[in-house]
């Protein structure tokens, strides 16, 4: 199928492309780097600039190198004008978009005090690029073409692959987003209302785990008053107990942890040993 080329691309779409590109790169990069950090914590922090370079190169090859369009452009059915995207411009595009961030992270992580001149050069370069980008943005607002500085330097225009000048909005994603947002709100509202401890106790009763715990319980004859040592923690919240209380077993609870649990479930059992005392029998230590 021959794609229909349309030279007009609304400015807002071109700005969206830049935002989408940034977000997509950030998402992929963070996911990969976080996973690597978990598997090889020491190695990945040492070679992070190289990992960054590899990830960004892979994204660049998979998008511009392969289809002459960034992922952001593909989402909005746009592309770079393939007639203008020659091999030398492709190479320059790679150098101008990927390599500066690599050099910057090398400078931040590895260069010592001897390389102050390089640091100054990079700072100067950054300020220049920033200033030129601002001028370029005003030029873009006026002309509606070449939104980034790199696009302007290489003379690359965006084209629409759809012969339709209207701004297309992906309602499919919008609806999904709305549904998901609604679902998350319901979850946020309902989850705090569910007493998971009570449900767990009822499940235990259902599956007859009580038989096992009864035998444990029989070992604790009478009222064992636990001692509060400097290392003692609340059996429920695992913090130093506030107003230590107990419910007949050897485990210590904060007053609030115990009172709140008994308030919501009168048959509340000790979370450590399953001992169950009636609600009016929790005592202060
Ligand atoms: Zn507590
Ligand atoms: Zn206990």
TrEMBL record:
Keywords: Membrane, Metal-binding, Peroxisome, Protein transport, Transferase, Transmembrane, Transmembrane helix, Transport, Ubl conjugation pathway, Zinc, Zinc-finger. Its EC number is 2.3.2.36. One of its GO terms (molecular function) is zinc ion binding. The keyword Transmembrane applies. One of its GO terms (biological process) is protein import into peroxisome matrix. Its main location: membrane. Pathway: Protein modification; protein ubiquitination. Pfam families: Pex2_Pex12. It is found in: Peroxisome membrane. GO terms for cellular component: peroxisomal membrane. Residues 24-203 form the Pex N-terminal domain. It catalyses: [E2 ubiquitin-conjugating enzyme]-S-ubiquitinyl-L-cysteine + [acceptor protein]-L-cysteine = [E2 ubiquitin-conjugating enzyme]-L-cysteine + [acceptor protein]-S-ubiquitinyl-L-cysteine. InterPro entries: PEX2/10 (IPR025654), Pex_N (IPR006845), Znf_RING_CS (IPR017907). It is an enzyme of class 2 (transferase). It is a multi-pass membrane protein. Belongs to the pex2/pex10/pex12 family. This is RING-type E3 ubiquitin transferase (cysteine targeting). The lineage of its organism: Eukaryota, Metazoa, Ecdysozoa, Arthropoda, Hexapoda. The gene is LOC119631353.
